[in-house]
Amino acid sequence: MKNHLTTTGLRTGGIHAISITLQFLIAAILARKLEPAGYGLYSFALAIAALATVPSQFGLANVALRFSAFYDAKNNFALLRGLKNRVMQWGFSYGALAGIILITSSYLAKITIYDSPVIFSLAWSSLVVITASPLHALTGLLRGLRFTTLSQIPEYLIRPIFFILLIISAPLTPFYITINPHTTLILHAFSLSLACFTAWFFVRKYFPPPIFNVQPIYENKSWILSAAPLSLMGATLITNNQADTIMLGWLATPGEVGTYRVASQLASTVSIPLIIINIIIAPHITRLHTLDKNIINLQRLLTSSIRIAFLCSTPIVICYIIFGSRLLAAIFGQPYSTAETVLLLLTLGQTINVFSGSVGLILNMTGNESLAAKGVLIAAITNIILNLALIPLYGAKGAAIATTASTILWNIYLVNAVYCRTGLYSTIIGNMRKFSSHEKA
Q1: Are 219 and 305 part of one and the same domain?
Q2: Are residues 318 and 397 in the same domain?
Q3: Which of 102, 109, 255, 347 is in Cβ range 3.0-4.6 Å of 37 for a Cys bridge?
Q4: How far apart are CA 375 and CA 369, in angstroms?
Q5: What's the confidence (pLDDT) of residue 279?
Q6: Residue 246 in contact with residue 44, Cβ under 8 Å?
Q7: What CA–CA distance (Å, rounded) separates 118 from 44?
Q8: Cα angle value 294/6/137 (rounded, 5°)
Q9: Which one, of 87, 84, 91, lies nearest residue 203 by Cα?
Q10: 380 with 304, same domain?
C-alpha cells in the first residue's frame, strides 16, 4: 500500500511537472504571437472562465470523486451507474447554461455600459466553460475509482499538447487562421474537447463492467447538498487566485493585463518544488498523523521536505532577482521586459509561500479543512480590497502588491493555525530540537 501511494504520487508529480512545462511553453508562444494587449484579453477571458467553472471544477468533480469511491468500495453498482449518468448530464448541462449566461451578460454589458475588447473576450470565454465543465466531471469519476494517473492525462497532457499543435499549425492550414485572442480561445476550446473525449473514453473503458448490467439509482439530493459547500469553497479559492487578473481587466488596460500575466506565470515557477513535494507527501501526512500517531516522524518529514523544496526554489529566486528583465524579454518578448518590478513583487510572495511550507495541505490532511477555508477567505477579501485600492493608482504594480500582501497574510494565518491545531511547525525552520529532546526522554 505504501509503495503504491509513493509510486502514484511520483507519477502524478511527474505529470504535473510536464504539464507545468507545457503551460509555460504555451504562455511563451502566445505572449509573443498576441503581444501584451492581445495576451491580456486572452488571459482575462481564461480568468473569467476559471471563475465560471467553479461549480463543475470543485463541486461536481469532488462529488464524483467522493461518491464513486464510496459506491465502488460497497460494490453498489446501481448507485455508481446513476452517479456516472448524472454527473455527466450535469457537467454538459452546466457548461451550456454557464456559456449562455456569459454570452448574454457580455451582450447586455455591451449595449448598456460600453463596447470594448474586454466585453468581447467575456463572450468568447463561454467556449472554454462549455468544454471544461464536463471534463471536470469525468476526471472526478476516474479519480474516485483510483485511476489517479489516468485521470490526469486528458487535462494535463492531452489538452496542452494538442493546444500547442493547433497554435503552430493553424496559420499553415488552407484557411489561413490568424492567431488573435478570439481564435486562440476557439483553439483552446478544441483542445479541451479532445481532452473531454479522451476522459469519456477512459470512463467507458475502465468503469466496472457490472454497472452496465444494472438499473441506475439516483441520490440527487445528497449529491447536490454535497456539491454546494465544495463549490462555495472553490469559489473563494478561485476568486483569490484570479482577482488580480479579472480586476486588472476591468480597471486597467489589456496591455497591463498581458505584462502582469507573464510576470505572474514566471513567478509561479518558484512554487513548483513545493507543489511536487505536496503531491508526494500528502498520503504520508494522513498516515503518520491519523494512523501511526507519530508526530515526531511527521515533523521530520515536513521539515526535511520543505527544506528540499526551498533549496530547489532558491536558485530560481536568485535568477529572477539578477536577470528578471532579461528573462522576461528572452522568454516572452521585449515588450514584457517592463514587468520586472511586478515579477520581483510576485516572486517575494511565492518565496514566502514556499518558506511557510505545506500549510494548506497539513490542515486538509489532518481534518482541519475549515481553518484552511477560512484562511483562503481572509486572503480573498484582502486581495479584492487591496486590488480595488491599488490598481487605479499603480496599475499592474498595484495588483502585484495586493497579491503579495494577501499571500503573506494568508501564510501567516495558516502557519499559526497549523501550530495551534496540530503542534506542528510547517516552515523551513521547523523545531527539530524540541522533538529530538522528546525522543531522548
Answers
A1: no
A2: yes
A3: 255
A4: 10
A5: 73
A6: yes
A7: 8
A8: 110
A9: 84
A10: yes
Q: Based on the fold, state whether residues 35 and 84 are members of the same structural domain.
A: yes
C-alpha cell at 124: 468568447
Whether 245 is in a domain gets the answer: no
* Residues with Cβ within 8 Å of residue 67, at least 6 apart in sequence: 79, 83, 144, 219, 222, 223, 226
Residue 185 near residue 124, CB atoms below 8 Å:
yes
Burial class (CB in 10 A: 0-12, 13-18, 19+), 440: exposed
Residue 237 lies in a domain: no
Question: What CA–CA distance (Å, rounded) separates 66 from 324?
Answer: 43
Q: How many Cα neighbours within 13 Å face the side chain of 246?
A: 17
Q: Report the amino acid identity of residue 162.
A: F
Same domain flag for 185 and 150: yes
Grid cell at residue 141: 469519476
Q: Is residue 182 part of a domain?
A: yes
Helix, strand, or coil (residue 75): coil
Q: Could you tell me if 216 and 268 lie in one domain?
A: no
Q: Which three cell numbers stand for residue 350?
A: 511565492
User: Which amino acid, residue 315?
Assistant: P
Helix orientation angle between 254-268 and 220-251, rounded to the nearest 10 degrees: 120
Task: Answer for the pair 214, 77: CB distance below 8 angstroms, yes or no.
Answer: yes
Residue 187 sits in the same domain as residue 336: no
> Contact at 8 Å (CB) between 235 and 54?
yes
Residue 88 lies in a domain: yes
Same domain, 274 and 371: yes
Q: What digits encode the pLDDT tens for the residues 209-266?
A: 888 888 988 888 888 888 877 777 778 888 888 889 999 988 888 999 999 999 999 9
Low-confidence ranges of the chain (pLDDT < 50): 1, 432, 435-441
Q: How distant, in Å, are the alpha carbons of 21, 250, 302, 341, 359 from that of 285? A: 27, 42, 8, 37, 12
Task: Specify the number of domains making up the chain.
Answer: 2
The amino acid occupying position 41 is L
Kind and range of the H or E element at 359? helix 359-365
pLDDT at res. 440: 38
| Average pLDDT value for the chain | 85
Residues 6+ apart with CB under 8 A from 207: 80, 84, 141, 145
Confidence (pTM) = 0.85
Inter-residue contact 165 to 107 (CB < 8 Å): no
Query: How do residues 295-346 score in pLDDT, each as one tens digit?
Result: 788 888 888 889 999 999 999 999 999 999 999 999 999 999 999 999 999 9
Range of the domain at 414: 252-441
What single-letter amino acid sits at 135? L
The cell numbers describing 91, all together, are 457537467
CA-closest candidate to residue 103, choices 117, 118, 124, 129: 124
